[in-house]
Amino acid sequence: MAKQITRGKGNGTGAKQRVPGERLAKVQGSALWTSIFRPGSIFRKGYTDSPRNRSYVIMNSVLFHLHPVKVKRHAVKVSYTLCLGGLSFFLFIHLTVTGIFLMFFYRPTAAQAWNDISSLQTSVTFGLLVRNMHRWAAHLMVLSVFLHMARVFYHGAYKPPREFNWVIGIILLTLTLLLSFTGYLLPWDQLALWAVTVGTNMMGYTPVFGSQVRFVLLGGAEIGTDTLLRWYVLHVLMFPFFIVIFMAIHFWRVRKDGGISGPL
User: Fewer CB within 10 A of the terminal residue: the chain, N end or C end?
Assistant: First the structure.
């Protein structure tokens, strides 16, 4: 044992081998790392292979563990959370169902979009009702997500170890606003045309690659059918896809970190 230590000191290889490991341990012990990767995930090491630790990893998985073992009594009171997170999730499901119904009667072309909206409100059974339900649910979702964020901030539930979930919540709020904005453009009336004009001009002032972003969003140099098609794809496919992913991570971290309660 003494000879092995002497060799390590003589050629310096022992110190060089320990430096990367120490740096990795320091990074894994930082507040940023521990806020993103919970203990027991595949990115955290130091657990021996045993039945208990295997079950521990499963319990920290978003795919396997869906229900918490226990929650605090005050955390389930309606007067404490106001059920704003659950209400936001319910409105998202409602928007998905009504949006699928509206997709059957809408064509994302400059020549047909407004006529399809008009026909939907006058000729389709329950078309006006479903469209109004979709529109008002979108407004309510923006309001409920904003109030949910305000409630979390007021109760200090964004503090460690929940700071990563607070960032996920901000991303979800941003996606909700983008989802609402893209849906506002789909009737392709005068309000939608001016909203596209103002929105793309604002994005065009982004430093370095602003003009490229504006060209991609417009589908060309000017507003046209390609513009409507691109915003339609963003509204019905891209933004809902990312919302579902971040929502699953958000719910998982709420259950694991206790996001509905105050700071630990």
Answer: N
* Calpha distance 98→103 (Å, rounded): 9
Alpha-carbon gap, residue 248 to 179, rounded angstroms = 18
Query: Residue 145 in contact with residue 172, Cβ under 8 Å?
Result: yes
Q: What is the pTM of this model?
A: 0.77
Single-letter amino acid code for the residue at 56:
Y
Closest CA to 44 of 61, 68, 20: 61
SS3 196: helix
Q: Domains plus CATH for the chain?
A: 19-65 (no CATH), 74-257 (1.20.810.10)
Residue 263's contacts (CB-CB under 8 Å, 6 or more residues apart) are 156, 157, 159, 160
Q: Which residues of 173-211 are buried (b: 16+ CB within 10 A; e: fewer)?
A: bebbebbbbbbbbbbbeeebeebbeebbeeeeeeeeeee
List, in order, residues 6 or more apart from 53 with CB less than 8 Å away: 40, 47
Q: What is the mean pLDDT of the chain?
A: 83
Check: CB of residue 217 under 8 Å from CB of residue 102: no
Quote the pLDDT of residue 39.
Answer: 61
> Among 241, 262, 264, 259, which residue's Cα sits nearest to residue 85?
259
What does the pLDDT look like over 207-239, one tens digit per residue?
888 899 999 999 888 888 899 999 999 999 999
User: Which segments of 100-221 are extended strands (E)?
Assistant: none
Q: Minimal CA–CA distance to 255: which of 41, 62, 32, 84?
A: 62
Confidence of residue 48 (pLDDT cuts 50, 70, 90): low
